[in-house]
Design goal:
Layout: E1 6-12, E2 16-24, E3 31-40, H1 43-50, E4 59-60, E5 65-72, E6 84-87, H2 97-100, E7 124-126, E8 131-134, E9 144-148, E10 152-154, H3 161-167, H4 170-182, E11 190-193, H5 197-209, E12 214-218, H6 221-230, E13 234-237, H7 243-251, E14 254-259, H8 264-269, E15 274-282, H9 296-301, E16 305-308, H10 316-328, E17 338-343, H11 347-355, E18 361-365
Parallel strand pairs: 4-8, 11-12, 11-14, 12-13, 14-15, 15-16, 17-18
Antiparallel strand pairs: 1-2, 1-4, 2-7, 3-5, 3-9, 3-18, 5-6, 6-10, 7-8
Helix pairs in contact: 4-5, 5-6
Length: 366
């Protein structure tokens, strides 16, 4: 039987962003029922609302969340009711060639990016019985949901839910970009363009591995001040400073340039910031049809690299518990990433804050 109706934040290509009452079906084979306790507001949600990533169906937004397991379907063995979990939006199939090679972030069998559960269905229906689909296979802007087992990652019970929510996307992406995608070593230099939730997580990851210097770039003085607390040794105003010229003049170029905005124009400037042999890491997600151009001779002649970064090249069930333990040990001050906590009904205001680069990470609580 479907559950009673609950409010959910839905984006519909015809009706736009709104609150809609939805119910969910029980967990089926290989699925887990979750009570959501906290959900982060991420640029990937904003990409849907702004039309950068078009959708042809109504979506329950939200893909960065933490909660408690309330039920499991047949065959589930990794979690049980009462477990505290972080939801990993890129739920791998665990069977394809990439998963078998330990590269779950490149899974070719996941249905998350199609905004469905692994069997191609949705657990959500509205009051009229119409299907509403889970964004990135989760749809976490509601109070209860059903997810595939590989999306529910058990974490220590002492981990706060709001911190756990950030591990579902921004922190795992940002720290993973440093540790997994780039493999930054102690003493190597880096610049981080954009210090929202993901960019600040990149800064934290760089400090964690001993990078130096760490240059943070943003348009917001508030965010740059936070970046300094998280380990940035230098800050630049992206509106007034020529970042590439500064990097060449002051550092002879950097070893790594991380772009955490998803702006093609900014991405095109990254190779100019690099020393020979350096790498540009594309952490921010651009619009689906975005393109960029580079000086190809410079890339080849100077041995520069451009690295794509999906989900921090992370395996959720491995990396999320590691990051949780690092936070609990005092190595990652993730609680300082949290700015405002809002009720679910204020999701539109939270997305407006994100659009205007106000504050750091906003948490929604059902």
């Amino acid at each position: 039987m479907p559950s009673p109706l609950s409010p959910a934040v839905v984006f519909d290509p015809e009706r736009g962003l709104h609150i809609r009452q939805v119910s969910r079906r029980p967990a089926g084979p290989g699925e887990v029922e979750i009570e959501v306790r906290a959900a982060g507001v991420c640029h990937s949600d904003l990409h849907i609302v702004s039309g950068d990533w078009p959708t042809d169906r109504p979506l329950v937004l939200g893909h960065e969340a933490a909660g408690v397991v309330t039920g499991t379907g047949p065959g589930v063995t990794s979690v049980r009711p009462g477990d505290h979990v972080v939801l990993s939006w890129f739920a791998p199939c665990r069977r394809c060639r990439r998963c078998a090679a330990g590269q779950a972030w490149l899974c070719t069998g996941t249905k998350a990016v199609a905004n469905t559960l692994p069997d191609g269905t949705t657990p959500f229906t509205d009051a009229e019985g119409e299907e509403v689909w889970p964004y990135l296979g989760l749809g976490a802007f509601t109070d209860r949901l059903v997810v595939p087992e590989s999306a529910a990652v058990r974490v220590p019970r002492e981990l706060p839910f709001d911190v756990g929510a950030l591990l579902g996307c921004s922190v795992t992406t940002g720290v993973g970009a440093v540790v997994n995608t780039a493999g930054v070593r102690p003493g190597e230099s880096a610049v981080v363009i954009g210090t929202g939730g993901v960019g600040l997580s990149v800064v934290m990851g760089l400090r964690l591995v001993g990078a130096d210097p760490i240059v943070a770039v943003d348009l917001s003085p508030e965010r740059l001040a936070v970046a300094e607390r998280f380990g940035a040794t230098h800050t630049l105003d992206g509106a007034h400073d020529d970042v590439a010229a500064w990097c060449r003049r002051e550092l002879g170029g950097v070893d790594y340039a991380f772009e955490a905005i998803g702006s093609p124009k900014v991405v095109e400037t990254l190779p100019g910031m690099l020393a020979s042999g350096g790498a540009a890491v594309l952490v921010g997600m651009a619009a689906t049809d975005a393109t960029g151009s580079f000086n190809l001779f410079d890339l080849a002649d100077q041995g520069k690299r451009i690295l794509g970064c999906n989900y921090g090249s992370s395996v959720g069930e491995i990396d999320i518990p590691k990051l949780a333990r690092l936070h609990l040990a005092g190595r990652l001050p993730l609680d300082e990433l949290i700015g405002v906590t809002r009720p679910l009904s204020e999701a539109a205001a939270a997305l407006d804050d994100l659009r205007s680069n106000t504050g750091v990470r906003t948490i929604l609580e059902p």
